[in-house]
Amino acid sequence: MATDPLSATFAALADPTRRAILARLADGEASVNELAEPFPITVQAVSKHLKVLERAGLIARGRSAQLRPSRIQGAALEQAADWLAGYRAVWEHRFDRLEDHLRRIDGGTET
Amino acid sequence: MTEAVTAHEITIRRVLDAPRERVWRAWTRPDQLAAWWGPSGWSTPPRNVAVDLRPGGTLRITSVADEDGAEMTSVGTFTEVLEPERLSFEEASEDNWHDGATSTITFGDLGDGRTEMVLRSTIHTTDEMIVHAEAGMSGSVDRLVELLA
User: Fold this and answer.
1) Residues of chain B neighbouring A14 (CB-CB closer than 8 A)
2) Is the complex ipTM higher than 0.90?
3) A12 lies within 8 A of chain B by CB
4) Which of A31, A98, B40, B107 is the most exposed place for a label (fewest CB within 10 A)?
5) Which residues in chain A touch residue B36, judged by CB atoms under 8 angstroms apart?
6) What CATH architecture applies to the domain B5-148?
7) Nearest to B25 by CA among A3, A102, A31
């Protein structure tokens, strides 16, 4: 269950539709319907992609229930890809090593 | 003028296949901390680990790069020591990385020989750090999209 620190960001960016959505949002905010237009997929599917992008901190969405316009989160992208991810990475890595350590001493070799 | 500070939070949850007391020892005994704290490619001699396990006490660990002997030191101050369920500590600001961080680690006994470990960290940054991050950002999305296309 080791998680790569940037996995949320990269998992979000790994999908071509999500990259296209991000590229569209780089030009300005847009509603789900506007974002769905150029794609041969349902609004519902686009909505799912937006959730992934939002969870990764790459976009923010308006709170109005109807439109919820999405906009790109430049600072969040930078933070997610930079220091916060770095801080998290340090801990994830540490915990990986702790897990290994606990497995090693499992045989009763603990001193 | 006081600079505005923003708090960011991260949570990391792990279920460890070891009883809580053993996890606690791994966290608090110098010889055991030495075995896992540093990144891979670095070693931590047990003599480089100092644990003053009490509120106000210091945790200090210096790891050494296997390749060139470079040193890296982690320093924290314990703010709460509640054996065997909770450990809290503060880290001071360092190298523009952050403007101080506080972390709490809870160890939950799952009752089946496993332990749920949860780290909650609050990391403080100043507006200046965010502005620097945003300044380095212009065009980054386009570059990323290009890179991954």
Assistant:
1) 148
2) no
3) no
4) B40
5) 94, 97-98, 100-101
6) 2-Layer Sandwich (3.30)
7) A102
